[in-house]
Amino acid sequence: MPSDTLDAPAVSAAPPGEPPPAAWHIVPRRRTGQWTAAVVLLALLALALFSVARNPAFQWDVVADYFLTSAVLRGLVLTLWLTVVVMVLGFALGTLLAVLRLSANPVLRGVGWGYVWLFRSTPILVQLLFWFNVGALYPVVLGVKTVDLLSPVAVAVIGLTLHEAAYAAEVVRGGILSVDRGQWEAAQALGLGAWRRLRRIVLPQAMRSIVPPAGNMLIGTLKGTSIVSVIAVNDLLYSVQLVYHRTYQVIPLLLVATLWYVLVTSVLNVGQFYVERHYARGTAGAR
Fold first, then answer.
1. Please, how many CA atoms are within 13 Å of residue 7, restricted to the half-sphere of its CB?
2. Please, which residues have CB within 8 angstroms of residue 173's CB and are 6 or more apart in sequence?
3. Contact, 95 vs 172, CB < 8 A?
4. CA–CA distance from 190 to each of 69, 180, 183, 200 (Å)?
5. 218 vs 116: CA distance, rounded Å
6. Model's pTM, two decimal places?
7. Whole-number Cα distances in Å, 92 to 133, 144, 150, 162, 244
8. pLDDT tens, residue by residue, 144-194
9. Is residue 80 within 8 Å of residue 225, measured between CB atoms?
10. Are 157 and 85 in contact, with CB atoms under 8 Å apart?
11. 3-state class of 144 per DSSP?
């Protein structure tokens, strides 16, 4: 039998009276329900935006008047400063805790686990109030009154840093565990010390797993700094509270704070996207 007969592709014949397959027109499946739901959602969103824009109770003119005032901007600067300091110190301490949790020494591993367990089990508001009132336990430290040593800003930095470090430890630990064990063994075979293995081999690879949750933590920390207003730290929220306690314009001043939080977190989201893309180079997840 000729070979061309065996290799000839099978062609489906068209039914009698129908055009050949090459002339068939494929019609995409109609998704009427999805488009109907999309139209309804867009209509509801338009109504909501129209209501917000036209409702005089929002007092958008007051929002515009206070949006760039010096008091609000000073509060914004303090909020950004707190976010940066807490994230840097929190991840520095969290990295140390992650190394302790991965240690072969059961005492070091237990200390790391105990710290993470304690600070993740306690609400951040309770922690801040505890540090704010620590003078009741230790009235004098190093010959200085505790109330003079720990200002509200210092209490905010300590409380937020200790809290964030517990979560940062788990983020870093998860990133380190995501690195293949063979990388550790290869670095050890090259004669690299433990610290150098961690710094030069493991952490650069672990960043692909660390950056996404770390970005979420950064945004969460930015918004979480608003809780320091309960201990009279003059952050963004406390700054607008001082104004509306005097003017009784609660809604527009809260909108000022909301818009600033939305603006800053949007910028951070863009930055997180590019950082993730940088560390994802050479992988299937690179965009």
1. 3
2. 98, 101, 102
3. yes
4. 59, 16, 11, 12
5. 18
6. 0.79
7. 26, 28, 22, 11, 38
8. 777 777 888 999 999 999 999 999 999 999 888 888 777 767 777 777 777
9. no
10. yes
11. strand
